[in-house]
């Protein structure tokens, strides 16, 4: 690939300038890549330091979910008689209202 800046590819000076130009371009790209790698390394370090805290929060949430699940599974076993009692009271109340409306 020949750049427009160096149309005469066969002269020694132009080849040296072309190589120098390409070397500078590659050096700048390598410097950019180094900066990116350093940023990625810093981000990984920050995430690794935060990981135990996230693990503690995750364990706490799992415990809360397990406790809620146990509570929900025990709920029908504990309060079924109350549910039936409320259902009977509601039925009696509705029957009484209908009786008063019909009368």
Explain briefly what this protein structure is.
The protein has 103 residues and is mainly alpha-helical. The protein is 88% helix and 0% strand.
Structure description:
With 103 residues, the chain is mainly alpha-helical. The protein has one domain (8-102). Helix content is 88%, strand content 0%. The protein is built from one helix and no strands. It has one helix at 12-102. The longest helix is centred in the middle third of the chain and has 91 residues, at 12-102. The chain starts with 11 loop residues before the first helix and ends with a helix. The relative contact order is 0.04. The chain crosses the membrane at residues 83-102. Keywords: Membrane, Transmembrane, Transmembrane helix.
State the main characteristics.
103 residues, mainly alpha, 88% helix
List the helices and strands and how they pair.
Layout: H1 12-102
Strand coverage percent: under 5%
Alpha-carbon distance between the termini?
102 Å
Number of strands: 0
- Give the overall silhouette: rod-shaped
Helix content: over 70%
Total domain modules:
1
Structural class assignment:
mainly alpha
Compute the average pLDDT.
85
Keywords: Membrane, Transmembrane, Transmembrane helix
Transmembrane segments: 83-102
Protein name: t-SNARE coiled-coil homology domain-containing protein
Domain T-SNARE coiled-coil homology: 23-75
